[in-house]
Amino acid sequence: MCQQSSYLPSSCSSCFFVSFQGFFQDLDQHLAFTHGNRANALVKSPSIEEFQDAMDASPAYRANFKELRKRVIEPSVKELLDKNGLVVKWEPVKAGRKVVRLRFEFEPDPQGALF
């Protein structure tokens, strides 16, 4: 259960990085050395099943990618930019019409915080 809300962990955007900590464990070390160089951006590409398992996604989110995208991925990406200064670009990788993988690209925000 999420510490910050009564929602399931899969619906809490604060849990994105914590839940996926093992998968992204080398993120901080990698980004410390890139200095915003796009060629050195960290790219991870988990299968959709790996991602759903790591996020402890509810059956409703497993059955409907739109809900997973809207309630987990997009709020988490926004929160990582706001709180950690990370630009996360992501895209679904499809086989036909079905999403089979997610591709995440992490890099430090080149703009940085203005204040």
Architecture overview:
The chain is α+β, with helices and mostly antiparallel strands and 115 residues long. It has one domain: Orthogonal Bundle (Arc Repressor Mutant, subunit A). It has 5 helices and 3 strands, in the order ααβαααββ. It has helices spanning 15-19, 27-34, 48-55, 59-63, 65-84, and strands at 42-44, 86-95, 98-108. It is globular and about 40 Å long.
List the helices and strands and how they pair.
Blueprint: H1 15-19, H2 27-34, E1 42-44, H3 48-55, H4 59-63, H5 65-84, E2 86-95, E3 98-108
Distance between the termini: 34 Å
- Profile the largest sheet: 3 strands, antiparallel
Q: Based on DSSP secondary structure assignment, what is the total number of beta strands? A: 3
Proportion of residues in helical segments: 40-55%
Structural class: alpha+beta
**What is the chain-wise order of helices and strands?**
HHEHHHEE
CATH topology: Arc Repressor Mutant, subunit A
Strand percent estimate: 15-25%
CATH superfamily membership? Winged helix-like DNA-binding domain superfamily/Winged helix DNA-binding domain
How does CATH name the architecture? Orthogonal Bundle
- The domain count comes to 1
Strand order of the largest sheet: 1-3-2
Give the class-level CATH name.
Mainly Alpha
Give the rounded overall mean pLDDT: 74
Question: What gross morphology would you assign?
Answer: globular
Q: What is the count of helical runs?
A: 5
Low-pLDDT stretches: 1-11
